[in-house]
Specification:
MFS_trans_sf, Growth Hormone, Chain: A, transmembrane, 474 residues, globular, mainly alpha, MFS general substrate transporter, transport, transmembrane helix
Length: 474
């Protein structure tokens, strides 16, 4: 009888412990609930951002297809006029990014991102009715002013919603939509160009008219679909919102979304690691843009033109998406960014080496695959590293902008290193790309060594950013 009483007492204690377990370890008991919230947020936050980014890529690069479908002749794009139209996009892009992220917080994501998207759609539609190259150049500059706010805004929104080691996968998923749109943008433009002659409009004008009008319609839809910042969300119940905000606070010591202040701006822009991050991201994007400009040369050498050339330029992007997802998953799970970036930079080097003219066209095409994978996968990886090591809402916003400055700077450099006088081998451009990829590896090794040293000091009692237990991401 005593044994039975003891057993009943033991069972009672277990039940009482289970009922009170949430008080003992609230983090453990809420883990499943948090995971469900993360999945819900994935489906609510990411799809509109991915669609907007994909549309921006298509609207940005369709000028190449318009050029070969008669725009050169109609607008008298002789000499370097086409290059001027290309380059004017990037300075405007740089100018727009920082004020845009400030206004994003002030006016809310749905209002601001939908506004800039509708605006660049209107600008794109206006390009269909230009009759001289100066008007096109001006509109390309205005296009950069509006498009410049999108990607830093997307990065900032994602980093606001997720913990530090969930960011790479989410940025990777969103960025892969842009990769996919890059792959088949040429095919889409080719199809729209076949409308040439309808209503006495040239095919290149239909590209701008249809894609610009579609962009404006999607912008209106996105206004109703875009999620606000976490603390303003209305699709989460009050209890779920409190749990999720506590989760973000626990992860990074700051969950509130705040406007950029002069103090945070000064602290961030006077930190030498900020500019190393910018420089390395510039190198990555220089190679990415240079690759896009060089691939048509290889395809021409292989005898492909028109629609076949567009399709062959698309294939390297498909395995890139798979590698991007795998790499971002490993990066978040291991909490290691830099080794992934170094590995992808090695792929860039191998790819550009194989693209040299002394190899067969098949080997050069293999080089295109490897270089594309390395370049494209490094973009979200480096963005994620910058966001992971930024503390506070203001610094994350600024670092999103700084990395995008590197993207625009890379676009300017990438459009210049493959010069016409270096055709058909473009040896200086290839070796410049190899050198930049090598600099990325060296820079990441140096940055990683510095972060490792700071973490070792923190283990001995130093406090990073005033947050107990904080460690830099490696």
């Amino acid at each position: 009888m005593d044994n039975e009483k003891d057993q009943i007492q033991d069972i009672g204690e277990i039940v009482e412990y289970a009922q009170d377990y949430s008080k003992v370890d609230p983090n453990a008991t809420s883990l499943a609930r948090e995971n469900r919230l993360v999945r819900k947020i994935d489906f609510r936050v990411l799809p509109p951002l991915a669609i907007m980014f994909a549309i921006s890529i298509i609207d940005r690069i369709n000028i190449g297809s318009a050029k070969v479908l008669g725009m050169t002749k109609d607008l008298e794009l002789t000499g370097n006029r086409y290059n001027v139209c290309l380059l004017l996009f990037f300075p405007a892009y740089i100018l727009a990014e920082l004020p845009s992220n400030h206004l994003l917080v002030k006016f809310r994501p749905a209002v601001w991102l939908a506004f800039i998207m509708f605006s660049w759609g209107a600008v794109l539609t206006g390009m269909a009715f230009t009759h001289n190259w100066r008007a096109l150049a001006f509109l390309r500059f205005v296009l950069g002013l509006f498009e410049g706010g999108l990607l830093p805004g997307v990065v900032y929104i994602i980093s606001s919603w997720y913990c530090r080691y969930e960011v790479h996968r989410r940025i990777g998923w969103t960025y892969s939509a842009g990769i996919l749109s890059s792959a088949f943008a040429g095919v889409l433009s080719y199809a729209l160009g076949l409308m040439g002659g309808i209503r006495n409009m040239a095919g290149w004008r239909w590209i701008y008219a249809i894609e610009g009008g579609t962009t404006m319609v999607i912008a209106i839809i996105c206004y109703f679909c875009l999620a606000p910042f976490p603390e303003e969300s209305c699709f989460l119940k009050a209890a779920d919102k409190d749990l999720y905000m506590a989760r973000l606070e626990r992860d990074r010591g700051n969950s509130a979304t705040e406007l950029i202040t002069w103090k945070v701006l000064k602290e961030t822009l006077t930190d030498w690691t900020t500019w190393i991050t910018w420089l390395l991201f510039t190198f990555t994007n220089s190679s990415t843009y240079a690759l896009a400009f060089f691939v048509p040369t290889i395809l021409t050498d292989m005898g492909y033109t028109g629609l076949k050339a567009s399709l062959f330029s698309a294939w390297p992007y498909l395995p890139t998406i798979g590698i991007l997802w795998i790499g971002s998953y490993i990066s978040d799970k291991t909490k290691m960014r830099i080794p992934i970036i170094i590995f992808q930079s090695i792929l860039m080097i191998i790819g550009f080496i194989l693209m040299r003219s002394q190899f067969t066209n098949e080997v050069r095409y293999l080089g295109v695959f490897l270089a594309t994978i390395g370049c494209q996968c490094n973009v979200p990886a480096q963005i994620s590293l910058a966001q992971t090591n930024a503390i506070g809402s203001g610094q994350r916003s600024i670092m999103a902008v700084v990395t995008m400055w590197g993207g625009a700077s890379g676009g300017i450099i990438g459009s210049l290193i493959f010069r016409t006088q270096d055709a058909p081998h473009y040896t200086p451009g290839l070796y410049t790309s190899i050198a930049m990829a090598s600099c990325i590896i060296l820079g990441m090794l140096g940055l990683g060594s510095y972060y490792h040293l700071c973490n070792k000091r923190a283990e001995k009692g130093a406090v990073i950013y005033g947050i107990e237990g904080y460690r830099y991401s490696l």
